[in-house]
């Protein structure tokens, strides 16, 4: 059980005003998650969001310059939340192999609501990350966005896990590459299982997340243990 009432603050310029600091801001976040999950990012607009929260488009624009930056915020929040969960789960574990196993369990099972964040539907946000997260960085402005710190939460999580890989096997030459591959695969394989089943072996499983978890453990430990 996670601690109750956690607050995750993102220190970058994806927002004009910190949404967690006001009731309207929190409503913008919660309702945008519901709408993007329902409509998809392409069909989502601030006009539709304003109608959903009973406010004006202008009020939404006071928090976010455009919907891309809102998506950046949501995905960044997700990665910060995953990093928090990872830290919590491995806090009392000494063995790096067991810590890495637990990390993969967390990465593969992030589609569950956390009672500590009542205004965030993590299950819906997880679906958004699976379907939409790559749109955050696959843009022409990725270098400028990187300088603004938009990907700090993702990079911090990757570094956190890569440190465990390096501790488990200091001779393994690709700790960051294998971790970033794992983080992407954790979502891609679930997406493929639902929409492009010929690209994966997870489509025949009733719980593709569990199958993906087993695959990731095989991938990670085979690579790390092979490099001695």
UniProtKB/TrEMBL annotation:
Gene3D superfamilies: Tetracycline Repressor, domain 2. It comes from the Bacteria. Residues 45-64 bind DNA. InterPro entries: Homeodomain-like_sf, HTH-type_TetR-like_transc_reg, HTH_TetR. Keywords: DNA-binding, Transcription, Transcription regulation. Residues 22-82 form the HTH tetR-type domain. PANTHER family: HTH-TYPE TRANSCRIPTIONAL REGULATOR BETI, HTH-TYPE TRANSCRIPTIONAL REGULATOR RUTR. This is TetR family transcriptional regulator. It comes from Pontibacter actiniarum.
